[in-house]
Amino acid sequence: MEVKAKLNYLRIAPRKMRLLADLIRGKRVVQARTILDFTLKRGCRPLKKLLESAIANAKNNFQLEEKDLWISEIRVDEGPKLKRWRARARGRAAEIQKKTSHITLVLFGEKKKPKIAKVKKERGEKEEVLREKAKPKPEVQKPEKEIVPTKVPLGRKKIFRRKAI
User: Fold this and answer.
1) 9 within some domain
2) In total, how many domains does the chain have?
3) What is d(CA 126, CA 5) in angstroms, rounded to the nearest whole number?
4) DSSP for 69-96, written as a single string
5) CA dihedral (150, 154, 156, 161) positive or negative
6) How confident is the model at residue 1 (pLDDT cuts 50, 70, 90)?
7) pLDDT digits (tens, 9 = 90+) for 86-137
8) Please, what is the Cα angle at 140 between 134 and 145, to 5 degrees?
9) Angle 75-72-50 (CA atoms, 0-180°, nearest 5)?
10) Is the N or C terminus of the chain more exposed, i.e. has fewer CB atoms within 10 Å?
């Protein structure tokens, strides 16, 4: 099931917004939200707001779970340009184009259906379709040596850099 949300006339250039769109394209909604939280770009806030709007549409209109949603398509198109003029030398004027973006976000998610397992009988007899019953999970043996988690540095991780090293 597809859920759409649109944001039109955003006053950020499409080229800048495509950098953010490429970061979250094809990701799960929860993961995309985390990426947008820690990315230091001006376009993150409106893009996150659009993502939240699409999630709300999925929950209210289609009764989909947030954890089952993922971003199937995100498209950043060019909107109309606002044209301004700036004085230049010798009485001339130079045009300044203030660009706008149209962003379309499509989420994909499916309602959960009961799992169906196909079981074949011996000697090529007919296949039966049985509903899978709750099977007890095999117990996992604990390792003798205790695993110590590694330390994670605190703070934000910069995804974009101004200069390449």
Assistant:
1) yes
2) 1
3) 47
4) -EEEEEEEEE-PPEEEEEE-GGG-EEEE
5) negative
6) confident
7) 999 999 999 999 999 999 999 998 766 555 555 555 554 544 444 444 556 6
8) 160
9) 55
10) C
Question: Hey, how many other C-beta atoms are within 10 angstroms of the C-beta on 49?
Answer: 13
Residue ranges making up the domain that contains 104: 2-108
In a domain, 76, yes or no: yes
Residue at 163 is within a domain? no
Rounded to two decimals, what is the model's pTM? Answer: 0.66
Q: What is the SS3 assignment for 116?
A: strand
Q: Evaluate whether residue 131 is within a structural domain.
A: no
> What CATH number did the domain enclosing 9 receive?
3.90.470.10
Q: pLDDT tens digits for 51-91?
A: 999 999 999 999 999 999 999 999 999 999 999 999 999 99
Of 45, 39, 36, 38, nearest in space to 12 by CA: 45
Burial zone of 108 (CB within 10 Å; 0-12 exposed, 13-18 middle, 19+ buried): middle
Tokens linked to 104: 């379309």
Are 2 and 108 in contact by the 8 Å Cβ rule? The answer is yes
